[in-house]
Every structure is written in structure tokens, then in C-alpha cells.
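Title: [Solved] ISH7-type transposase (Nonfunctional) 3D structure

Original question kept below for reference.
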Amino acid sequence: MVETAEAKRVSRAASSLLFPELDFGTADNATYPSEDSGQVLARIAFDNEFVNAGAKAYQLARGDEVNVRAESRNPLARALLYHLRGLDEDAVDRQFYRVHLALALKELDVEFVMRALQTRKVQQFIADHDEDTFVAEYEMARSSSPTARTTVQLVVVPHRSREDDHF
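Solution (posted by the thread starter after getting help):
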């Protein structure tokens, strides 16, 4: 559970950037759009709730009619769990390395660590250095709309078990 107001503010800012980017695979005419799934994910993460309770609380907070005494799983929770099963783990991990997320955390003056993706740009950046372990200024950039750039400290260390990989 998020204990401090600052941590909760940071988490909410990060989720507002992260969850809209996740593709839950919902159709345009779905009963529960992707935005609902993101809001429920944020709520259960912040409040340490189960999906069913979080979905009901979210719907109650926005004024929906919800049967809180129902024994069966909430329809929104059921839809969220269904769509989460279809997400590729790597696709979810990629969402945590985003320029807009780094910019939001910098704006909140929060120190953070995120794992860099093994893109061609990062691999070339590592190859251009003589050492296996180093810290260097690195420019994160998003070329598709909405575009953004920010400079971060890239910390490179060799992977423990793979000689040809870095973390």
C-alpha cells in the first residue's frame, strides 16, 4: 500500500501516463473501455485491493449502480482479468521505459530508476563505450506523436548470467 502522500501522487502521475498506453485489446464498442481497466489497475495497486473489490469501488466512486452484495465476480473485474491474460509480458515491461514517464517523474522532482530497453540505439550506445560498466548521459526520445526528449543518466552493468548482455 502506498504510505505517503508524495508516493501516492507520484504513482498516480505515473499511472496516468502508463495505463493509457497499455492496449487491453478491447473493442471500440466494448462495455468496459481500456480507460476503465487502467483506472481499476491504478486503484488496486494504490489501495492494495483485490480486483473484484477495486472494480466495485471504482464503479461506485463514479456513480454506477453496483450490487456490492453479489457473490459472483464483478463484470468489470471479469473483463479486466480476461484482457490482462491476453497482454504480452514484454509489452507491459516496455511501457515502464517511456520518455513521458521520465519527464513526469523529473517534473515531480523524484529520483527514479527504470530499466532501459535493449533497442538498437541503446545497444549502439553501449558498444560505443570501452568499459563494461559505466554511467553516462543518455537522451531518451520518442519520435512518434506526441514527441518528447529528456536526458537521463544511463547506468550500464554487465548481466550476471549472460556475457553478451547488459542491464
